[in-house]
Specification:
single chain; alpha/beta; 281 residues
């Protein structure tokens, strides 16, 4: 199965970002991709964190979700919609005093049907004296892992586990997906330049190796309108930790063939996952 990890440098205007994403999705389809993964915040990297609140959409409504569904239908692609700000349900809103949204990944089948939703569980917090981030100021954390099944054109049924950016630092989530039979782990991200330079490659390869799974990481990669610099290095990693394809910076599509037989061979040669399941405490 050919998979495309799409790298963007998203700006402060939703429509401009959707236009950029559309062109990149068309490029991915032209390269023969079956699955295309957009990065975290593909639709908006605002001048301030609260800009997400103005762009929020209720589940099933709004221009961002319409764009994703229409693109999937038009291009015949499975599309993983990076992340977008989803409004809290009325029952959730009553639980908190301040306005927040979910940072959510939505998955669309080639029919345009939404088949899966994942709300980012782990919210990034960082302060080195020069940069400070606290996603919990405007985001509400999700509570449930989420995965979906994708029948590829060659007849294999892929199970795909969803995660977002900072989740990458919490291996328990990916281990759960492995225990559920995941073959591919997705990590749409907007890593900061500093943390990405230090940890991005290492963490992605570790998640692939320890779970004997493919990893596809679509990233933001450049200097944004708001002055923030993201690390980029969108990549696809095989179950042995080998790098299949990568783009360092700038806008583009990173494509690679994921070989189901290669995954099966890695798991047969090194049966670590059955060992874990049989001997878990």
């Amino acid at each position: 199965m050919k998979v495309a990890a799409i790298q963007m440098v998203s700006g402060t205007t939703v429509q401009s970002n959707l236009d950029s994403a559309q062109a990149l999705l068309r490029d991915a389809a032209a390269e023969g991709a079956e699955l295309a993964v957009l990065p975290e915040y593909f639709c908006l990297l605002g001048r301030k964190d609260t800009d997400k609140l103005a762009a929020q959409e209720p589940l099933g409504e709004g221009p961002i979700q319409q764009f994703l569904a229409a693109s999937a239908r038009e291009l015949g692609l499975w599309i993983v919609g990076g992340t977008l700000p989803l409004a809290l349900a009325s029952a959730d809103q009553a639980l908190i005093a301040e306005d927040r949204v979910y940072n959510s990944t939505l998955v669309y089948a080639p029919s345009g049907e939404r088949v899966c939703r994942y709300d980012k569980i782990h919210l990034f917090r960082f302060d080195n004296g020069r940069e400070r981030y606290d996603e919990s100021a405007v985001l509400r954390p999700g509570t449930q892992p989420a995965s979906f099944e994708l029948p590829s054109r060659d007849g294999h049924l892929w199970r795909v586990g969803l995660s977002i950016c900072y989740d990458l630092r919490f291996p328990e989530l990916y281990r759960l997906y492995a225990q559920q039979g995941a073959h591919l782990l997705l990590v749409p991200s907007a890593f900061t330049y500093g943390t990405g330079q230090a940890h991005w490659d290492i963490l992605l390869r570790a998640r692939a190796i320890e779970n004997l799974a493919f990893v596809a990481a679509a990233a933001q990669g450049g200097v944004h309108e708001n002055g923030r610099r993201t690390w980029g290095h969108s990549m696809l990693v095989d179950p042995w930790g080998g790098l299949l394809a990568e783009r360092a910076e700038g806008v583009g599509v990173v494509c690679a063939e994921l070989d189901f037989d290669r995954l099966s061979a890695c798991r047969a040669q090194l049966p670590a996952l059955p060992h874990l399941l049989h001997h878990a405490l």
